[in-house]
C-alpha cells in the first residue's frame, strides 16, 4: 500500500531481488492517475519481467481475497493513527498480515555524509530548510548534491534516475509545475539535484558528483 514513493523504494531495496517473496500488486492513493498503470520491468527486475500491476487502494479487500495475499505492507505517510489502524483492521479481517517496514530493512548506506531534512507532513517547510542548509554548506566550502523525494507523475521508465544541473533539464525531463517550483531555486543557486524512483542508483550517481 503506497502513494508512488516509499512503496516503490521498499520494493526496490528489499523485494526486487528477494526470491522468498512474490509481490503480486501495488496499491496507490494520493497521486493522480497512478492506479491502472504498472511498475515497469525496468524497475521491477528479473523476478518480475512483466512488471507489477498498480491498483487503486479502494480495491484492497478484493485484492487480498482474489490473489490470496498473505502480507500487506503500508508504505506511505501523512496518515493519522486512526486511519492506519482502520487499514490494519481491514487487512487482518481478510486474513492477511499487516506490516510496517523499518530502517534496517529499507535504509540505504552512503559512503559520504548525509543531511536528511524531514517533517511530519507536507507543507512544514522542508524545501526552504533544504535550500538554507545548502547555502550554509557551500559557504563552508563543501561540495553538495540535493536528492529529492520522488514526484512520479510521468512515465516511470523515464524516471529511474534524473540529474538536474540547468533549467534546460527541466524541459528535458518534462517537469510538472510542482516539480519546477521545487527544482528551480536549487538550479538558480548552482546546486545539482537528483530525483527519480531508484534511490540506490541515484545515491551512487550523487556520490560520484
From TrEMBL:
<protein>
    <recommendedName>
        <fullName>GTPase</fullName>
    </recommendedName>
</protein>
<dbReference type="InterPro" id="IPR053199">
    <property type="entry name" value="cDPG_synthetase-like"/>
</dbReference>
<dbReference type="InterPro" id="IPR027417">
    <property type="entry name" value="P-loop_NTPase"/>
</dbReference>
Amino acid at each position: 500500500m503506497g502513494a508512488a514513493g516509499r512503496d516503490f523504494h521498499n520494493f526496490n531495496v528489499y523485494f526486487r531481488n528477494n526470491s522468498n517473496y512474490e509481490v503480486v500488486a501495488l496499491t496507490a492513493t494520493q497521486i493522480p492517475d497512478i492506479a491502472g498503470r504498472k511498475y515497469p520491468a525496468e524497475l521491477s527486475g528479473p523476478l518480475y519481467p512483466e512488471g507489477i500491476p498498480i491498483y487503486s487502494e479502494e480495491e484492497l479487500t478484493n485484492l487480498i481475497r482474489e490473489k490470496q495475499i498473505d502480507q500487506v505492507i503500508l508504505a506511505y505517510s501523512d496518515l493519522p493513527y486512526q486511519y492506519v489502524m482502520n487499514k490494519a483492521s481491514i487487512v487482518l479481517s481478510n486474513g492477511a498480515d499487516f506490516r510496517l517496514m523499518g530502517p534496517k530493512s529499507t535504509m540505504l548506506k552512503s559512503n559520504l555524509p548525509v543531511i536528511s531534512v524531514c517533517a511530519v507532513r507536507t507543507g512544514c517547510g522542508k524545501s526552504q530548510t533544504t535550500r538554507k542548509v545548502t547555502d550554509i554548506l557551500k559557504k563552508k566550502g563543501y561540495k553538495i548534491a540535493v536528492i529529492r523525494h520522488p514526484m512520479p507523475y510521468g512515465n516511470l521508465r523515464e524516471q529511474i534516475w534524473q540529474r538536474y544541473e540547468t533549467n534546460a533539464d527541466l524541459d528535458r525531463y518534462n517537469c510538472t509545475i510542482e516539480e519546477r517550483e521545487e527544482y528551480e531555486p536549487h538550479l538558480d543557486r548552482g546546486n545539482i539535484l537528483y530525483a527519480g524512483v531508484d534511490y540506490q542508483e541515484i545515491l551512487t550517481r550523487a556520490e560520484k558528483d
